What we know:
Blueprint: H1 11-26, E1 33-35, E2 43-44, H2 46-49, E3 56-64, H3 68-75, H4 81-94, E4 99-109, H5 114-130, E5 134-142, E6 152-163, E7 178-183, H6 192-202, H7 220-224, H8 232-239, E8 246-249, H9 254-258, E9 268-272, H10 280-289, H11 293-299, E10 304-310, H12 315-321, E11 326-332, E12 337-340
Parallel strand pairs: 4-5, 9-12
Antiparallel strand pairs: 1-2, 3-6, 4-6, 7-10, 7-11, 8-10, 9-11
Organism: Chloroflexus aggregans
Main location: cytoplasm
Keywords: ATP-binding, Cytoplasm, Ligase, Nucleotide-binding, Purine biosynthesis
Amino acid sequence: MMKYSAAGVDIAAATRAKELMTTAVRSTHGPAVLAGMGAFGGCFDAALALAGMQAPVLVSSTDGVGTKTLVAAALERYDTVGQDLVNHAVNDILVQGARPLFFLDYIAVAKLDPVQIAAIVNGVAEGCRAASCALIGGETAEMPDVYAPGAFDLAGTIVGVVERADLLPRPDVTVGDAILALPSTGLHTNGYSLARRIVAQHFATEGYHARPSLLGGQTIGEALLAIHRCYLSEVNALRAVVPVKALCHITGGGIYDNLPRVLPKGMGAEIVRDSWTVPPICQLLVEVGGLAEHEAFHALNMGLGMLVIIPVESVAAAQKVVAEAQLVGRVTATPTVRLVDG
C-alpha cells in the first residue's frame, strides 16, 4: 500500500516543526492578532491597529533572501536568514514611510527537517519582534522533486501602514538636496550568486571557511551571513527631527537601479567616492573577483544600506541624532546616477 511518506512528504515532520516554532511565533502577537498559527487565515484587527489615524494607507511588499539560502545551507546555519527576510521587508516598506503591521512567511524544502524549519522561523519571529510586527501566518512546503537535496527557499510578505500625508517619497525633492547613507552590515540579501561564484573560483579549497586577512579574522561564510540590517529605528529618529524627503533601500541593482526609483523625473544623483566605509566582504569580492567599479555598485550595496534624502541645511541636525549617517552625495539636475570624486 502506497504512503505519502514514500513520495517524499512527511506529514509528521511538518507537525513536529509547527510544535517547535509555536512559542516563537506567538511571542510576536499583540491584541490586534485575532487568529494566527493553526487558523486557515491570519486575522488582524485593523480598527485597533490603525486607531487614531486620519487617512491610513496600507503598504505591502513580498521578497526573498535569494541564494543566501545556499550559503546558510552549506554552513548549516539556519538561525539568521529569517531575520534577513524580515529586515529586508521592513526596509522596503519603510521607503514608502510605512511602519510594519504583520508578516507572513513561506519556506520550501526538498526534505523537511523540523529543527531546521524551526530555526528559520525562530529567526523570522525574532525579526518581527524587533520591528513590532506580528507573524500571523505562513506556509512550509516539502517539495522533493522541485528542490535539490539540502536546498531551501525562503520568502515573505509584509503589510504596513502610513498616514497618507506622510507617504514617501515627498514631491519636494529638489536639486541640491543632501544624500546621507546608513551603513550596511555586508551584502545583506543581494549579490549572493556573484559572491558564491567568486568564492568557488578563488577559494576552492577552504570555501566559506577561508579567513582572508582582509576580513580581520572572520571566515568568508561568517561575513556573508551577516544579518541584513533593519533601519526602522534610525529612520524614525531622523524623521522626528529633520524633514526626510525620500529613502532608498539599496538592494538588487545597487545605486544605479534603486536611486532613480525615488527621485523625481529628470533628476539624478552624485555619490562621492570614499565618503563612507566599504565593508571588508565587499572589498574582498571586488578585489578577488576583479569587478569593475560599475559592476560592483550595480550588483552589491557596497556599504550603502539605506540612503536618506534631506535638505542640505538639515545634515548637521541629522548627524547629531544618528551619528553614523554619512554625507555621501547630492541630488542633481542630470537624470543619471554617477560616482564622482570628492
